Amino acid sequence: MENLKNTATQFVSINASYDKAFNYLTNPLLYKEWSTNFISDILVEGDQHFATTPMGKVNFIVKGDKQTGNIDLFFGDAPNPIPTRLFPNGSGVTYLFTLFQADSMPDMAWEQGIKGLIEELEILRTCLEK
Questions:
Q1: What range defines the domain where residue 108 resides?
Q2: I want to staple 110 with a disulfide (CB 3.0 to 4.6 A). Which of 25, 60, 101, 115 is the partner?
Q3: Is the full-model pTM beyond 0.90?
């Protein structure tokens, strides 16, 4: 198991209802609309979803708990999910997304990944505020 070096949490506030945002974020097919720096396509094979990512085609599972707002993203055979969380915020929501840098990830790739996530969260905001 690799040691983690860095953790970064980014967030976006969105003028959309909690139900709309939760339903959108727990639908694996919609990730290609906003996660454009990481997911270029989602394929469905039987009852499984596969994401086309810079690492190739990997199994993609989204597990959400509407009561807590936890939305975990599982990619390939990674031992741990990418944790995200949706919070009610007045008449809208705030969405938090946490990334972890593994020892094998170069610092430059880590920094580019954070910049890419910030861009993606703005795309997500635009998609949900339509």
A1: 4-128
A2: 101
A3: yes
